[in-house]
Design goal:
319 residues; two-stranded antiparallel ribbon; TIM Barrel; homodimer; alpha/beta; 9 strands; globular
């Protein structure tokens, strides 16, 4: 959940010298940043430092980040012609710097903790590609989805193939688990999820996990279609804090679950934070396969001491 | 659902001459704007034109709207002292211009269609008051909620009393139904909703409906705590598009339901729009008490012809 980031002084020190994209492009820096939360927070896994939108560079969409670190896509995709003209993306050739950062990180971690690779899910990537950046209402995304479903499915199919193969390449480079991130899929109705998204997420996950590497299938705001998400695949399904952990689990009792602390709980005093952590661990009691995590990305102003405190609480409860 | 607004040329014509707050403050203009959707769209009810945050003016929070119409609160509330110093609000004295706009509107409508009054729910108002404007992550809101629950409950209690009495005053002025708007309550976990919000929404609804006027209790992103929302009260519970209408209804089978078309569906071609409208009407079949509506506010670039088309579809299906 963006383990490395602005909330860590060690990360900000590197960001003072290099932009977000420069860190991503330089395997030595990406590796250094990837290791920071393991060294300073004590988490049980590292997640490769990268950006969800890196595949937009070889796709020629003109990716940059504004001062507030919000993404800007210079050439959004909204027509059949634009989808047809998208160049082929080969993860080894076009995103090799991420794979190299994974190889470096795995070597540095020396098996102490596993490394998780990740990629954006087709819907979340499509929403950025169509809107040209962040959005609150997803109007252009849904306008294309409803108005030109053929182009929508063509775009989603391309994105599914790209991220599926990119994730598989991350596994070959040494990632020991893979996470498909569908941050914004909760903007959809369950009916629309099944019709417009599920087949493409299923394709991405099938490609990603073909060689047997476990896949975590994560989204936020997904309470009403967790069954459909689980059908699309994933050895573990990740949920946000909007559904009690045990209740979410009922939709996929045979899988593992990841979650689901509200990132805002890290701003709570220790007693309230402890109460919330314990509640989550209690709801996982007696069931196999729980990855304790936040329900979405860690927030920029988070106090690293609180994150360390949560890691210790979970370790104590797990012991 | 913000029936009057930027999507209507008739509204923009008035906005060219007066600011949003000026329209709210002038009963003649507020009445004119309230009637526009009845005249030009053919909806079955009018909703008084007002802003959720008007109670912030007598509370002395310094309400204004930036160019993009986003609210700015000059003096946010974050401490026990600030809550204790909040002045008393009397709806008749301090928000009398809204009540006068209601009286004018009811007179103009001559019983042809009913008028709905509304107010922001305690949580949604608290989030604006604490953050100082719109927010994506509700960090300051939850920081106060978790970190100083006594101040949180004091603020929520004050807001509940104000909006409950304000709604009751709207009913006395002639509003034939009342809507409590909890736009952002879906940022909470079900556990937090019950602990930090439900008692205050219950108080607001009890005050609002004391004289028997029906109350619509609306929120978005509430799929996992609809039961708790219904317990807090409301003759009708309003849901967004993230839960199928019939599935949402199971949480409160004895009540009416309002919803739940995705506002983005109004950007879809007529066949897809028709399919979605029919799906909603079908899910309400054989059950009493369905108010067809959007699942959240109508979006600024919506084509009024599409809105008219939906009204006609619903009328045809209802006939």
């Amino acid at each position: 959940m963006r383990q490395a980031g602005r909330y860590m002084a060690e990360y900000r020190a590197i960001r003072a010298k290099a932009s977000l994209l420069e860190i991503c492009h330089r395997p030595d820096l990406a590796c250094e940043v990837t290791l920071q939360p393991v060294q300073h927070i004590g988490v049980d896994a590292a997640i490769i430092f990268a950006d969800l939108l890196l595949p937009f560079e070889p796709l020629g969409l003109g990716l940059s980040f504004s001062a507030g670190e919000g993404p800007v896509i210079a050439r959004p995709i909204r027509t059949a012609e634009q989808v047809a003209r998208l160049p082929a993306v080969d993860a080894e050739r076009d995103l090799g710097y991420v794979l190299e950062a994974i190889r470096l990180s795995v070597r540095e971690l020396r098996g102490k903790v596993p490394l998780i690779g990740f990629a954006g899910a087709p819907f979340t990537l499509a929403s950025y590609a169509i809107e040209g950046g962040s959005t609150r209402n997803f109007v252009e995304t849904k306008r294309l989805m409803y108005g030109d479903p053929e182009t929508w499915h063509a775009l989603m199919d391309r994105l599914a193939a790209i991220v599926g193969r990119y994730l598989a390449a991350q596994a070959r480079a040494g990632a020991e688990a893979l996470q498909l991130f569908d941050s914004w899929v909760g903007s959809l109705s369950p009916q629309d999820y099944r019709r417009y998204v599920q087949p493409h997420s299923a394709k991405a996950i099938a490609l990603a996990g073909a060689a047997g590497t476990p896949v975590i299938h994560f989204g936020t705001g997904t309470s009403t279609f967790l069954d459909a998400m689980a059908e699309a695949g994933g050895d573990v399904v990740g949920v946000d804090w909007r559904i009690p952990l045990d209740q979410g689990w009922r939709a996929f009792p045979d899988r593992g679950i990841q979650g689901n602390l509200d990132p805002c709980a890290l701003f709570a005093p220790i007693p309230e934070l402890t109460r919330q952590v314990n509640d989550i661990v209690d709801r996982a009691a007696g069931k196999p396969g729980h990855i304790f995590n936040l329900g979405h990305g860690i927030l920029p102003d988070t106090d690293p001491d609180r994150v360390r405190a949560v890691v210790e609480m979970v370790h104590e409860r797990g012991a």
